[in-house]
């Protein structure tokens, strides 16, 4: 199956570079480019790509607004958005997370991680660049005080929490713990419910705050 991707960035050279990297893969095709946020929303709604790569800073609508429009909680049929950023503004990236982005990647992360992020998003997993994770965790800690779970986590759930905190995708967790992908997804959902958290990065922050991972 070919993964259809939309690339949104206000710099033509960046768009061209991302296209070259992605279309070097047999299973990925860039179906559209957008030079600003408004164009990104319009093209994404028209073409319904499998994954949208969105810069955090763009004219007309920024990456936060684009993410909310395409993947926000009020969107009936959300798309999968991965933010590709220089990460010079923590607030923007945290806002994109809250708005429904499924991945974060630095522009200098390298071709392999870019391709992995697209494939992870398409598979329903999330990928956060390791260097971005540290910044995100610090922001989450500043905003959300440490909390105890409403119900205790099982030992298996704690194992999943540790793997999430290390930035591993659902497929990687399934392979490491010798369980099915659907079981991992069920555990992650249950963990978020018990902890009262809304996404994987907040789960990772909880793990670090409570010394559940080295």
TrEMBL record:
Record keyword Transcription regulation present: yes
InterPro entries documented for this protein: CheY-like_superfamily (IPR011006), NreC/VraR/RcsB-like_REC (IPR058245), Sig_transdc_resp-reg_C-effctor (IPR016032), Sig_transdc_resp-reg_receiver (IPR001789), Tscrpt_reg_LuxR_C (IPR000792), WalR-like (IPR039420)
Response regulatory domain boundaries: 4-122
Keyword vocabulary terms for this entry: DNA-binding, Phosphoprotein, Transcription, Transcription regulation
All copies of domain HTH luxR-type, residue ranges: 146-211
Domain of life: Bacteria
Entry's Gene Ontology BP terms: phosphorelay signal transduction system; regulation of DNA-templated transcription
Classification via Gene3D superfamilies: 3.40.50.2300
Modified sites of kind 4-aspartylphosphate: 55
GO molecular function: DNA binding
Protein name: Response regulator containing a CheY-like receiver domain and an HTH DNA-binding domain
Organism taxonomic ancestry: Bacteria, Bacillati, Actinomycetota, Actinomycetes, Cryptosporangiales
